[in-house]
Amino acid sequence: NKTMGDSIEVPALSKAGEAAASLRTTTNGSQTNGEIPVWTPSSWTTKPIKQDVVYDDRAAVTKALAKLERSPPIVTPTEICKLKKYLRNVALGKAFLLQGGDCAELFDYCESSMIESKIKLLLQMSLVLIYGVNKPVVRVARMAGQFAKPRSSPTEQYNGKTIPAFRGDNINGYDPEERTPDPSRLVSAYFHSAATSNYIRASVGSGIADLHSPLDWELRHVKDPAVKAKYKRIVDSIAGTLRFMKTIGADSASKELETVDLYTSHEGL
Question: How far is CA 269 from CA 83, 87, 148, 150, 156, in A?
Answer without folding.
Answer: 21, 22, 6, 8, 20
